[in-house]
């Protein structure tokens, strides 16, 4: 269950597990609410991520941003390893629809 900070309405989560990712340069962390995120090894080490660490809102936003970056980077490498894509093809077919 998330810890509630008595000074504000912020909700903090605890990291329940850390696992090495399938790619060499990533870790997967799990929070107590069941969510999971992929992080680069550099981010993992720089932010001293470990099992039992309490994650506040600021760190959670950084983790979410890093996870999106790692997923996008992994997808790009996967696409480029299968076929030659032009910059136009990548933008046209894989840019987020807003």
Structure description:
With 98 residues, this protein is α+β, with helices and mostly antiparallel strands. It has a single domain, classed as Orthogonal Bundle (Arc Repressor Mutant, subunit A). Helix content is 41%, strand content 26%. The chain is built from three helices and five strands. Strands 1, 2, 3, 4 and 5 form a five-stranded antiparallel sheet that branches. A hairpin with a 4-residue loop joins β3 and β4. The termini are far apart. The model has no long low-confidence stretch (mean pLDDT 84). InterPro entries: WH-like_DNA-bd_sf.
**Structural class of the secondary structure composition?**
alpha+beta
Biggest sheet details:
5 strands, antiparallel
Q: Report the CATH architecture.
A: Orthogonal Bundle
Low-confidence residue ranges: none
Shape: elongated
Radius of gyration: 16 Å
CATH topology: Arc Repressor Mutant, subunit A
Give the strand content: 25-35%
Count every helix, treating DSSP H or I runs of 4 or more residues as helices.
3
Query: What is the CA–CA distance across the termini?
Result: 34 Å
The residue fraction in helices comes out at 40-55%
InterPro entries: WH-like_DNA-bd_sf
Question: Secondary-structure blueprint of this entry?
Answer:
Blueprint: E1 3-4, E2 11-20, E3 26-31, E4 36-40, H1 41-46, E5 54-55, H2 57-82, H3 87-94
Antiparallel strand pairs: 1-2, 2-3, 2-5, 3-4
């Amino acid at each position: 269950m998330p810890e509630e900070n008595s000074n504000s309405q912020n909700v903090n989560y605890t990291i329940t597990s850390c696992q090495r990712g399938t790619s060499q340069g990533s870790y997967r962390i799990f929070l107590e609410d069941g969510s999971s995120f992929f992080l680069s090894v550099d981010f993992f080490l720089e932010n001293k991520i470990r099992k039992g660490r309490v994650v506040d809102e600021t760190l959670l936003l950084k983790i979410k941003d890093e996870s999106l970056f790692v997923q996008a980077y992994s997808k790009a490498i996967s696409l480029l390893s299968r076929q030659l894509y032009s910059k136009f093809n990548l933008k046209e077919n894989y840019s987020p629809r807003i």
